[in-house]
Amino acid sequence: MPRMAGSKRERPPTQRRNREAEVVEAAIDVFWRKGYSAATIQDVADHVGVLKGSLYHYISSKEDLLFTIFDESHRQAQEIAASVRAADGPAIEQLRTYFERYVRWYLDNVERVSLYLNEWRFLTGERYDTVVEQRRVNERFVRGLVEAAQAEGDVYPDVDAKYACFYILGAVNGIPTWYRRRGRQSPAQIARAYADMVVGTLRGTEPRSAPRRRAPAGTV
Amino acid sequence: MPRMAGSKRERPPTQRRNREAEVVEAAIDVFWRKGYSAATIQDVADHVGVLKGSLYHYISSKEDLLFTIFDESHRQAQEIAASVRAADGPAIEQLRTYFERYVRWYLDNVERVSLYLNEWRFLTGERYDTVVEQRRVNERFVRGLVEAAQAEGDVYPDVDAKYACFYILGAVNGIPTWYRRRGRQSPAQIARAYADMVVGTLRGTEPRSAPRRRAPAGTV
Amino acid sequence: MPRMAGSKRERPPTQRRNREAEVVEAAIDVFWRKGYSAATIQDVADHVGVLKGSLYHYISSKEDLLFTIFDESHRQAQEIAASVRAADGPAIEQLRTYFERYVRWYLDNVERVSLYLNEWRFLTGERYDTVVEQRRVNERFVRGLVEAAQAEGDVYPDVDAKYACFYILGAVNGIPTWYRRRGRQSPAQIARAYADMVVGTLRGTEPRSAPRRRAPAGTV
Amino acid sequence: MPRMAGSKRERPPTQRRNREAEVVEAAIDVFWRKGYSAATIQDVADHVGVLKGSLYHYISSKEDLLFTIFDESHRQAQEIAASVRAADGPAIEQLRTYFERYVRWYLDNVERVSLYLNEWRFLTGERYDTVVEQRRVNERFVRGLVEAAQAEGDVYPDVDAKYACFYILGAVNGIPTWYRRRGRQSPAQIARAYADMVVGTLRGTEPRSAPRRRAPAGTV
DNA sequence: CATGAATGAGCTTTCATTCAT
DNA sequence: AATGAATGAAAGCTCATTCAT
Lengths: 220, 220, 220, 220
Prior knowledge:
4 copies of one chain form a homotetramer. Chain A is an all-alpha fold. The first copy, chain A, has 2 domains: about 20-60, Homeodomain-like (Arc Repressor Mutant, subunit A), CATH 1.10.10; about 60-205, Tetracycline Repressor, domain 2 (Orthogonal Bundle), CATH 1.10.357.10. Chain A has 10 helices and no strands. Chain A has helices spanning about 20-35, 40-50, 50-55, 60-85, 90-110, 110-120, 125-150, 160-175, 175-180, 185-205. In chain A, α4 (about 60-85) packs antiparallel against α5 (about 90-110), α5 (about 90-110) runs antiparallel to α7 and α7 (about 125-150) crosses α8. Chain A is elongated. Residues about 1-15 and about 210-220 of chain A have low confidence and may be disordered. Chains in contact: A-B, C-D. The interface of C and D includes residues 172, 192, 203 and 206 of C. Chain A binds a DNA duplex through α3.
């Protein structure tokens, strides 16, 4: 319906609708920059441009806001896992695919995902339990693939799958420490590089005592 | 019991002294468990068993306490780097040595080192700058070794040394997420496994276009 | 369904109207259960099933709502007094009648009357004065009857009419503390019992020095 | 130990010591005048003359403060009941004694006791349960005495002991509505008058249908 | 009429820090 | 050294009320 001239005012384009999303977005930004504990509701309100009391139209508590942020992240993380589970091929290649998608997603949503991975311990009660369980599910998924890759001979049998998982997940988890948007390499390139390093870690790690039989003689 | 002139009271021999160290130790524990921001000076005082006002005999501020914790960590990190720099041999083996020592040290001081690696952003002003610089020095050290290893042919030339460093450091950084003292494997075993994975990552990561057969030695 | 000019929409026949009464009813319930101060406009709105903003179509302020509740109570209290004033017979019997009706009314409207008797101090300004005056009128009415009964010889002359009134009114006022609708005894029975106790208090209270023998019947 | 001239300052007589008691006293005053819900911690702090934050040295929450007030009241109420239980003599006289002491105590501590009797519902959880139970114990004590008096023939058998108790307790409960310290009559006199009215209520309440057969001339 | 967003003031509580004793 | 009281600022949250739509 066209608005006639003379109608009160052309409503400012962004201001209306989706204040809720705006609030979440602001919270992501603030929590990410200051850390959840150090960040204040006031900070978030300032970011949105309303009084802090007004925020409580959209949230029921600061912790609730954090949980909301996690919720979306978890859902997306699940989707990625599901998309990989649907594929077939050797486990090691599934891992490559998984991590390429996962890192890509991470890079595209660093702030939000980083919160999900690093600030979950500030939840309490049931919400804490929920998130801890969610994380465990994801870890088990990766662990399963690594063990499969080991069974398929792509990882030395002496490598401890558990530590390998921790190592890999830690490496990926560390992304927000250094990643800055508008860096020289595109998210796609970085995702590819990381996925390759994951595969490299798994394929390339030889038990120390093992003769250097992998690399053909003469070397090193 | 008569009071001797000049000495308020006979103090229990061992308990006295080193209150300062006690305070730092308590802070490490508390900050580690709750996070620096969420932890309170009250928590620390409770841990030491004094009133919070009394803490200010030993510290000058909460942030100061955090900085003190960092200080020791930095010094030790430097020592490890120095000890490796002193050695010679191929860079890749220096990296193995470095990370074995580094992880071992990390595991033996998880709480403190973890704070050093994760809560540095809560410092302000000059202290912030100091710590950021310290961290950079360490990163550069690792980066140097990786690049050397690449020059020596132990890392594919197409691998991006920068990302490889980030990846490795992230993996190691992730240790506190899962490490629990009194786990099944000894710190020494874990350190060895991690060092091997570091080497594995570097040696094993092939650029994707490369044929799946590993390049026969000497090619590079 | 076509919209007729002049009538926004066909409203469901019974549900409409009396929203105002609904609001007052809800407020009575909420204020009674939580206390005026602790109750919130939100609580009332929830009870009515509208948003709190919408309540302001029917009320002009929270205090206004309280005053409205008082208004009806006061009017009914007056009616009861008037109906008794119209009767004649000995004062003590008028008191019996009055309290039987009063208690009956109280029981039938516990929540509302209880608010009237106990939350009046939260009014401010003129409204406060109004209600205080109303209450005083009622007290004077009872006081008058008690003094008359004393003049007529149904109350020992040494009994202090003022305290007797306070005592009686307090007793009646206490009803909401224990009364639960659907108790074993009917409101009528309770009202009767209370009225009898009022009379009992007045007739039965002997000055302590008085000999234990009761004044012989008929003397009055 | 005598203080020498020249010592920093003669400490202001009241200011020191017992801040805790001062806080409770202030809270009693404020809660009593405004009602617990409407009263603010700020009010209490103003009364004590400190910043509101400072109050939390002495209390752990507003509700805790209320509970503290109740605690002393409950203890004293128990003592009174105990002192009466220790006596013997006819139940009706025990009731007289009990209420004389109880009312006396009430008058001497109107604000505090009134809070105990009227604001208990603002407690929550365990504390609520505790106080409800305490109150029940007291009611049972009075109820026991009334029933004993009835068994001993001092109360008409048709009188419902339950309602008689509610009535009496309500009457006494009503004291704070009108009592002002420095009234014309002394607390002792009022207590006596009230105790007599309690006895009067019990002895004087005849079932309505009953012939005036009580008090055959000269008897009892 | 009703909505729902927003306000602004104020609430309870927390906390790093200071300081006289 | 240690205490314990106090501060002052700020935190998270609530709530009566307003108002454009």
